[in-house]
Amino acid sequence: MTRYITIKKLASISGxxxxxxxxxxCRGVWLKDRVWIRAPDGRVLIDIEGxxxxxxxxxxxxxxxxxx
Length: 68
Prior knowledge:
single chain; alpha+beta; three-stranded antiparallel β-sheet; 3 strands; 15% strand
C-alpha cells in the first residue's frame, strides 16, 4: 500500500465525502505535513499514517484549538 493517496481515493475508502475532506483541510482540522501534503505538481495528497493517527485520536489539535 502506498503512504500518500488522493482525496478521491480517501473518500472511497473512509466514508468521508470529497467535500468533507476538503473542509477539514481548509479549516485546519487536518494539519499540513501531518495529515496532508501538497505534491510538487500542486495536488493535495493525504498521508494515510497521519489520517490514521487523527482518526484514532493520536494526532494533536492545531495550536490554540480548544484553549480556554
